[in-house]
Amino acid sequence: MKKLLSVLLSLVMTGALLTGCGSPAAPAATPAENPAETPLETPAADPVDVKVLALKGPTAMGMVKFMNDADAGTITDNRYQFSIVAAVDEVTPKLVQGGADIAAVPANLAAVLYNNTKGGVKVLSINTLGVLYIVESGNTVSSVEDLRGKTIYASGKGATPEYALNYVLAENGIDPAKDVTIEWKSEHAECVAALAASENAIAMLPQPFVTTAQTKNQGIRVALDLTKEWDKIQAGGANPSALITGVVVARTEFIKEHPEAVAAFLDHYKDSVDFVNGNTEDAAALVEKYAIVPAAVAVKALPACNITFAEGSGMRDKLSGYLTVLFEQNPKSVGGTLPADEFYYSR
């Protein structure tokens, strides 16, 4: 029925356009002459189930207002089901198998999923820029060059953290395999523990783990912002890229079946991001409500989380440049090949 109404509306609109072209039109008929000619309204799309997954961290933080409004019944255009998970391994199978329709994932994983599913997912928006920082329990690092010869504790091997760190090091003349020792940990919490265990220890951590570490040990300081270091490298380039941590993807099948639901999701998500960035204390309370991190941590971490919203051509320019940097480091990091144009969704 919905498709039929859409076709009918299209025909009406086409007729209206044709009436305005060519030879002068006859005088408009009055309602009495054509009582059946009344304005048609576009029928609202029927509500659908929208299953959304987000990782526990900045990608979920940007959604908290959206989640809260959906739970409170303020948003009723669709039936949104949000789930926050701790590990990316929980996202991938659900997205691929249809257990999720939309998911916030690491930027490079979006490309991997696209390639591995032969176009089964598309990227809708960028939701988080760089959130990686070099921190230390001392005062020995003030530039990338100061990392030469040091041991860096890090988590995220095979994902954005590794590729971002390697890129920043290499572009500053430091061989990641020879000039530094990168000790990879399975969890960020292990890096925090390493910082506390010895003086002048150095680690790469994302927000909000940086703030969490600082609440436990006031001697931990932020030495370098990898987003700023990335921007320094890219400055002056023909098409400068950005360090991107997370994006939002959706199953291609879901986009085709429910374009109205996808558009509504993007509108609500943008509103949520704007709220989070403009209302730190209220957003922090919601971050705690959804058990992401305590409000005391969130209120300090949110300004450094680089939560954003970018879609369309702006998203494509930034993300394609970022993926190209990763591809040049290691083609496997993006699934073996750079995604085709169809990977970038635009409404």
TrEMBL record:
The keyword Acyltransferase does not apply. Residues 1-28 form the signal peptide. Keywords: Signal. Residues 24-43 are annotated as: Disordered. The keyword Protein biosynthesis does not apply. PANTHER family: ABC TRANSPORTER, SUBSTRATE-BINDING LIPOPROTEIN, ALIPHATIC SULFONATES-BINDING PROTEIN-RELATED. This is ABC-type nitrate/sulfonate/bicarbonate transport systems, periplasmic components.
